[in-house]
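User: Hi! I'm working on a homework problem where we have to compare a predicted structure to a textbook description. Could you give me the structure for the chain below?
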Amino acid sequence: MDEPLAKVRRRSKKTGYDPAPFIERIEDLRTKKNLSLRQAGMQAGLDHQAFRRMIAGSRPEMMYCILLADFFEVNPNELLLLAGWPRLKIFDVKSVSDENLPPEAVDVALALAKIADTGTRKQVADAVMVLLKKYFD
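Assistant: Happy to help. Predicted structure tokens:
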């Protein structure tokens, strides 16, 4: 992203927002944790009304997407993009990988990121984790 974030945010606010993909993903994450709307909102650091507004179709603020991603343990860029916001470099695996991860781990993460379907991506990631756990046991 070469433009200043404030400019990109202003432009994003003017574009149409389709809440269905965001709502579907959040509902999936919430039901997997077996939480009510109120519980999910409060545990993510939001008030329960903010969470209800998002589920009702209001575009969430960028910070709400980041808080939800942290709580549900998903990459914030996934929720930001679903909410119609720009991808943030700070959350890209590629931008931090050179410092903290071995090249093989980066390759696996980038390959996982290419899987569009979140359910399939989660299944593949879980399978990789099973293999890694067997290695360390």
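For your comparison, note the following. The domain at 5-91 is CATH 1.10.260.40 (434 Repressor (Amino-terminal Domain)). The chain is about 70% helix and 0% strand. Good luck with the assignment!
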